[in-house]
Design a protein that fits this description.
Elements lengths: L2 H12 L3 H10 L2 H18 L4 H26 L10 H4 L19 H16 L4 H17 L5 H25 L1
Helix pairs in contact: 3-4, 4-6, 4-8, 6-7, 6-8
Protein backbone atom coordinates (compact mmCIF):
# COMPACT_ATOMS: atom_id res chain seq x y z
CA UNK A 1 0.00 0.00 0.00
CA UNK A 2 1.20 3.45 -0.87
CA UNK A 3 2.50 5.17 2.26
CA UNK A 4 0.99 8.51 1.13
CA UNK A 5 -2.50 7.03 0.99
CA UNK A 6 -2.25 5.63 4.50
CA UNK A 7 -0.91 8.90 5.91
CA UNK A 8 -3.61 10.89 4.10
CA UNK A 9 -6.45 8.70 5.40
CA UNK A 10 -4.95 8.73 8.91
CA UNK A 11 -4.75 12.53 8.86
CA UNK A 12 -8.33 13.00 7.63
CA UNK A 13 -9.58 10.33 10.04
CA UNK A 14 -8.29 12.40 12.96
CA UNK A 15 -9.87 15.66 11.74
CA UNK A 16 -13.22 16.55 13.20
CA UNK A 17 -15.39 16.34 16.24
CA UNK A 18 -18.41 14.36 17.42
CA UNK A 19 -21.07 16.37 15.53
CA UNK A 20 -19.07 16.22 12.29
CA UNK A 21 -18.60 12.48 12.70
CA UNK A 22 -22.35 12.00 13.28
CA UNK A 23 -23.20 14.12 10.24
CA UNK A 24 -20.73 12.29 7.99
CA UNK A 25 -22.01 8.95 9.29
CA UNK A 26 -25.49 10.02 8.14
CA UNK A 27 -24.24 11.23 4.74
CA UNK A 28 -22.64 7.82 4.17
CA UNK A 29 -25.72 5.85 5.13
CA UNK A 30 -27.12 3.82 2.23
CA UNK A 31 -30.65 4.69 3.38
CA UNK A 32 -29.84 8.40 3.35
CA UNK A 33 -28.33 8.18 -0.12
CA UNK A 34 -31.28 6.21 -1.48
CA UNK A 35 -33.69 8.74 0.07
CA UNK A 36 -31.61 11.68 -1.24
CA UNK A 37 -31.53 10.37 -4.84
CA UNK A 38 -35.22 9.46 -4.72
CA UNK A 39 -36.21 12.93 -3.50
CA UNK A 40 -34.04 14.63 -6.14
CA UNK A 41 -35.58 12.45 -8.84
CA UNK A 42 -39.14 13.14 -7.66
CA UNK A 43 -38.50 16.90 -7.47
CA UNK A 44 -37.00 16.86 -10.97
CA UNK A 45 -39.97 14.97 -12.41
CA UNK A 46 -42.56 17.15 -10.67
CA UNK A 47 -40.93 20.48 -11.48
CA UNK A 48 -40.08 19.65 -15.10
CA UNK A 49 -42.51 17.02 -16.45
CA UNK A 50 -41.33 17.68 -20.03
CA UNK A 51 -37.99 15.98 -19.31
CA UNK A 52 -39.42 13.15 -17.22
CA UNK A 53 -38.85 10.33 -19.71
CA UNK A 54 -35.27 11.18 -20.66
CA UNK A 55 -34.33 12.01 -17.07
CA UNK A 56 -35.77 8.77 -15.69
CA UNK A 57 -34.12 6.72 -18.42
CA UNK A 58 -30.74 8.32 -17.60
CA UNK A 59 -31.22 7.63 -13.87
CA UNK A 60 -32.18 3.99 -14.55
CA UNK A 61 -29.15 3.53 -16.81
CA UNK A 62 -26.87 4.99 -14.13
CA UNK A 63 -28.31 2.51 -11.62
CA UNK A 64 -27.91 -0.43 -14.00
CA UNK A 65 -24.31 0.51 -14.85
CA UNK A 66 -23.35 1.07 -11.23
CA UNK A 67 -24.86 -2.13 -9.89
CA UNK A 68 -23.77 -4.17 -12.88
CA UNK A 69 -20.19 -2.93 -13.11
CA UNK A 70 -19.09 -1.53 -9.73
CA UNK A 71 -21.03 -3.84 -7.46
CA UNK A 72 -21.44 -6.91 -9.66
CA UNK A 73 -18.36 -7.14 -11.85
CA UNK A 74 -15.65 -5.34 -9.86
CA UNK A 75 -16.59 -5.86 -6.22
CA UNK A 76 -18.10 -9.34 -6.38
CA UNK A 77 -17.09 -11.21 -9.53
CA UNK A 78 -13.47 -10.08 -9.92
CA UNK A 79 -12.76 -10.55 -6.21
CA UNK A 80 -13.15 -14.28 -6.82
CA UNK A 81 -9.99 -14.15 -8.94
CA UNK A 82 -8.09 -11.25 -7.37
CA UNK A 83 -7.74 -10.41 -3.70
CA UNK A 84 -10.16 -7.73 -2.59
CA UNK A 85 -8.67 -4.56 -1.23
CA UNK A 86 -9.44 -4.30 2.46
CA UNK A 87 -10.73 -1.04 3.85
CA UNK A 88 -8.27 1.21 5.71
CA UNK A 89 -9.92 0.71 9.11
CA UNK A 90 -9.63 -3.09 8.64
CA UNK A 91 -6.02 -3.07 7.44
CA UNK A 92 -4.79 -0.45 9.93
CA UNK A 93 -7.04 -0.71 13.01
CA UNK A 94 -4.32 0.68 15.26
CA UNK A 95 -4.20 4.03 13.43
CA UNK A 96 -7.58 4.42 11.66
CA UNK A 97 -10.86 4.50 13.56
CA UNK A 98 -14.01 3.59 11.62
CA UNK A 99 -16.73 6.24 11.77
CA UNK A 100 -20.34 5.38 10.98
CA UNK A 101 -21.36 2.04 9.49
CA UNK A 102 -18.49 -0.39 9.14
CA UNK A 103 -18.73 -1.52 5.54
CA UNK A 104 -16.95 -4.82 5.03
CA UNK A 105 -16.99 -5.35 1.27
CA UNK A 106 -14.06 -4.44 -0.96
CA UNK A 107 -12.64 -0.95 -0.58
CA UNK A 108 -11.85 -0.59 -4.28
CA UNK A 109 -13.54 1.28 -5.92
CA UNK A 110 -15.71 3.58 -3.81
CA UNK A 111 -19.33 2.74 -4.62
CA UNK A 112 -20.52 5.84 -2.78
CA UNK A 113 -18.37 8.03 -5.03
CA UNK A 114 -19.40 6.21 -8.20
CA UNK A 115 -23.13 6.62 -7.53
CA UNK A 116 -22.76 10.19 -6.28
CA UNK A 117 -20.76 11.28 -9.31
CA UNK A 118 -22.99 9.43 -11.79
CA UNK A 119 -26.21 10.86 -10.40
CA UNK A 120 -24.80 14.36 -10.21
CA UNK A 121 -23.56 14.21 -13.82
CA UNK A 122 -27.11 13.40 -14.88
CA UNK A 123 -28.70 15.99 -12.61
CA UNK A 124 -26.33 18.79 -13.66
CA UNK A 125 -26.88 18.00 -17.34
CA UNK A 126 -30.61 18.63 -16.85
CA UNK A 127 -30.19 21.37 -14.23
CA UNK A 128 -26.93 23.28 -14.87
CA UNK A 129 -27.75 25.73 -12.07
CA UNK A 130 -27.02 22.90 -9.59
CA UNK A 131 -23.36 22.63 -10.62
CA UNK A 132 -21.88 24.33 -7.54
CA UNK A 133 -24.14 22.41 -5.17
CA UNK A 134 -23.17 19.18 -6.94
CA UNK A 135 -19.46 19.94 -6.65
CA UNK A 136 -20.02 20.56 -2.94
CA UNK A 137 -21.77 17.19 -2.60
CA UNK A 138 -18.92 15.42 -4.40
CA UNK A 139 -16.32 17.04 -2.14
CA UNK A 140 -18.39 16.23 0.96
CA UNK A 141 -18.79 12.59 -0.07
CA UNK A 142 -15.09 12.21 -0.96
CA UNK A 143 -14.01 13.77 2.33
CA UNK A 144 -16.42 11.64 4.33
CA UNK A 145 -15.35 8.35 2.74
CA UNK A 146 -11.72 9.13 3.59
CA UNK A 147 -12.44 10.66 7.01
CA UNK A 148 -14.62 7.71 8.02
CA UNK A 149 -11.76 5.29 7.27
CA UNK A 150 -13.70 3.46 4.56
CA UNK A 151 -11.50 4.24 1.53
CA UNK A 152 -8.08 5.20 0.26
CA UNK A 153 -7.72 8.22 -2.06
CA UNK A 154 -7.27 5.94 -5.09
CA UNK A 155 -10.59 4.18 -4.28
CA UNK A 156 -12.32 7.56 -4.26
CA UNK A 157 -10.60 8.72 -7.46
CA UNK A 158 -11.57 5.57 -9.37
CA UNK A 159 -15.13 5.84 -8.01
CA UNK A 160 -15.31 9.40 -9.38
CA UNK A 161 -14.03 8.28 -12.80
CA UNK A 162 -16.45 5.36 -12.96
CA UNK A 163 -19.33 7.59 -11.89
CA UNK A 164 -18.48 10.16 -14.53
CA UNK A 165 -18.38 7.42 -17.17
CA UNK A 166 -21.74 5.99 -16.01
CA UNK A 167 -23.33 9.43 -16.10
CA UNK A 168 -21.92 10.19 -19.55
CA UNK A 169 -23.07 6.84 -21.00
CA UNK A 170 -26.52 7.27 -19.47
CA UNK A 171 -26.88 10.74 -20.99
CA UNK A 172 -25.71 9.56 -24.41
CA UNK A 173 -28.19 6.67 -24.42
CA UNK A 174 -31.00 8.97 -23.25
CA UNK A 175 -30.15 11.44 -26.04
CA UNK A 176 -30.27 8.66 -28.64
CA UNK A 177 -33.66 7.51 -27.35
CA UNK A 178 -35.24 10.94 -27.03
Amino acid sequence: MDNFEIKFVKYLNQVGFKRLDSFLGLVNSIRFLAFFWLVLTIVAVITHPVITNSFLVAVLIVCALHFGITEGLIKHFLTRFFPKRKRPYVTYPEIITPIGKKFSDASFPSSHMATTMAMLVVIVSFYPSLLLLSIGMIILMAFSRLHNGMHYPSDVAVGILLGYAYGWVALEVARMLF
